[in-house]
Design brief:
D-Maltodextrin-Binding Protein, domain 2; 11 helices; 2 domains
Length: 319
């Protein structure tokens, strides 16, 4: 009898899910961005939201909910109704590194969300103030070794801080860390000479390189950027195997009906394959990176494990 009741409830749940998926979407959607407007994650979200609106026939409203390295917005997304009307543009911070740097998290990057797809990936750019007497990464490392803890480097967010800690460990150097709440003030201080070194997403800092106000030494991904093909990778600069990317991807609250997940995924893959969208991403130094939900879920889990180890090895204690 109990088995019959459970089977009936399961069938009823499946029917309800399929029924809601057939009429979905029947109202506007909200795409939560856990960061302020203007940053790379926000730019990617707005590009995708516009095309999702057109494809789904409903408005997709970008909802910026910044705070606590993205935790405020991610918590809101995790606790939203799993009905397909709340999405989140997550990234390396909200879906991976925060778990390595915060002792208590109000959501679980794996259990609280259902992955839809990776959206984009882009390198970090290692830049220095033009007055610093280095023109290559090797020269920067040599200077940092000659003058330990005197070079000031800036980072905007825990994800980039951990990336620099990982590089510093591999390179055997120590620099003076200056944390910033966002890329804009960090870049301003680099251009102004208050800091000498900056690791930042390509799209944020490359305009200063193009304007001659900063010097690019390397990108942190396996391959060079098509926007700046003359800038070598860290591997080409003597650090093989070093590969750090800034990435974004869309997730929905766990429990969202599978038919809705499937429809969202198919629509998103179509959008990310469009030449116009790829071109908009390329202007940001990013590459569209769609893939199956299962692959994105595995990637998130791998990044969680990776950055927890990096934090432990660097002696970073969760706050």
């Amino acid at each position: 009898m109990i088995r019959f009741v459970l089977s009936a409830l399961a069938a009823l749940y499946l029917f309800a899910g399929n029924a809601s998926a057939q009429t979905w979407p029947s109202q506007p959607l909200h795409l939560i961005v856990p960061f302020p407007p203007g940053g790379v994650t926000d730019v990617m979200a707005r590009t995708v939201a516009q095309r999702l609106s057109e494809e789904l026939g409903q408005s997709v409203v970008v909802d910026n909910r910044a705070g606590a390295s993205g935790i405020v917005g991610a918590e809101a997304a995790a606790h939203a109704a799993p009905d397909g009307y709340t999405l989140m543009m997550g990234n390396i911070s909200t879906l991976a590194i925060n778990s390595a740097t915060f002792a208590k998290m109000p959501y679980d990057p794996v259990k609280s969300f259902a992955p839809i797809s990776m959206v984009a990936i882009q390198p970090l750019l290692v830049v220095v103030h033009p007055a610093l007497p280095v023109k290559t990464l090797q020269e920067l490392v040599a200077l940092a070794k000659a003058k330990p803890e005197t070079l000031a480097y800036g980072t905007a967010g825990s994800s980039i801080h951990l990336a620099v800690e990982q590089f510093s460990t591999v390179a055997g150097i120590k620099m003076n860390h200056i944390p910033y709440k966002g890329s804009a003030p960090a870049i301003n201080d680099l251009v102004g000479g208050q800091i000498q070194v900056l690791f930042d997403p390509f799209s944020s800092v490359y305009p200063q390189v193009a304007a001659g106000k900063a010097r690019a030494l390397a990108v942190t991904t396996e391959h060079r950027s098509s926007v700046a093909p003359d800038v070598p990778t860290l591997a080409e600069s003597g650090y093989p195997g070093f590969d750090v990317s800034s990435w974004q991807g869309i997730v929905v609250p766990a429990g969202t009906p599978q038919p809705i997940v499937d429809k969202l995924h198919a629509t998103l893959v179509k959008i990310l394959g469009e030449p116009g969208v790829k071109a908009q991403f390329a202007q940001q130094g990013a590459e569209a990176a769609p893939g199956p939900p299962e692959k994105f879920g595995s990637y998130i889990a791998a990044e969680l494990s990776r950055w927890k180890k990096v934090a432990q090895d660097a002696g970073v204690k969760p706050e």
